[in-house]
Amino acid sequence: MKNLLYLVALTMVFSHCRPRAEESYITLFPGKPGVPSTINIEHEFLLGQVNAITLFQDSTGLVATEVEELMQHHFAEEEDFVLPPLGLLPLLASGTIPEQSKEVIQLTEKLKSQLAHMTLEHQMINALMVQLKKVAIQENHQEVIDFEKALHKHAITEEEVYFPAAILVGEYLKLKLYPLQSQS
User: Fold this and answer.
1) pTM for this entry
2) Per-residue pLDDT for the chain (184 aa), expressed as one digit of tens each?
3) Element holding 73 (H helix, E strand)
4) Helices 143-157 and 59-77, interaxial angle, to 10°?
5) Domain-by-domain residue ranges, the chain?
């Protein structure tokens, strides 16, 4: 019962975190860097796994549908403004500063302002996964356990590596574009 109340509270908070239908959170500009292909592949893999679980004709499938909806929303946000700066890492490592640096800095500033929101969405997905895992065990769907582990690992990697690395890309570009302002 405690988990259910927690989930309801998170759902209420999340409903206020999502952009309204008329608000677009897709950030477009010429030369916007792409999300690294390995991350896109992992997102597609995880969405494919949860989609397969939604096809179960029981409580596991119903809860998985909620997980899938939240994951789709969250991944779309990540692919919009969180992960594209990471697509510049090979270019930056070679010493090249991209033409679209100012726009990329705007993306990383948006990430910094939305970091708590993105982390909250991870917590909400995790809360749903706790519920999903519970019903999956009751209904003998062992494959859900493997999915839960993969999704948890993905979220930890984002919080410990991808999010900070994307912010660092923006900070690096600021240092390169505005060296005098960075010294103050």
Assistant:
1) 0.82
2) 455 445 544 454 444 454 443 344 556 667 789 999 999 999 999 999 999 999 999 999 999 999 999 999 999 999 999 999 999 999 999 999 999 999 999 999 999 999 999 999 999 999 999 999 999 999 999 999 999 999 999 999 999 999 999 999 999 999 999 987 755 5
3) helix 59-77
4) 20
5) 2-12+34-182
